[in-house]
């Protein structure tokens, strides 16, 4: 069966529907079954969350290949560049006609096929959590679930004031302890997953990679809400 080319709609972009090919690293995540309510955290949960915060706060730059699927059958792959705080760049490989850039304020989505640019407040997208200057899960976020098995564990978070914007689940491998995947469930029940491969840290990026100017003749839209 041919793969569907990934093209997100506005609701998916508020959830930043970026996902991964193949099975989830943490296949038993209950993304569809449970409401996004704050979890009662055990001491072990709190220790794992502290490990996650320390891991993210130790990352200033990162480059990786990503692959993605969503629950509608969409597929995409490409290269991710991240520079904290606030900078992201997703370069999609053909045939997906997308470029996504975060400039510290806006998440910019450029569809090269239909010549359209959409801007979303970076702080309103779940992926904005990963590029905060300091990642703390008790700062404007609620942890709704912590799951673990022998090889991986996962932490799900929501923004309490914007629950409809999506639930973000971060997945980590153990031995070595690495960030490998995120999943987003939006209000429409669309589940999307990103898996990272060939991860490199402490990469030097040119500033221009994290800026975007609308090309001539392109329709631009800004979504403030």
UniProtKB/TrEMBL annotation:
Domain of life: Bacteria
SUPFAM superfamilies associated with the record: Prokaryotic lipoproteins and lipoprotein localization factors
Statement: the UniProt record of this protein carries the keyword Hydrolase: no
Keyword flag Oxidoreductase: no
Swiss-Prot/TrEMBL keywords: Lipoprotein, Signal
Name of the protein in its database record: Outer membrane lipoprotein carrier protein LolA
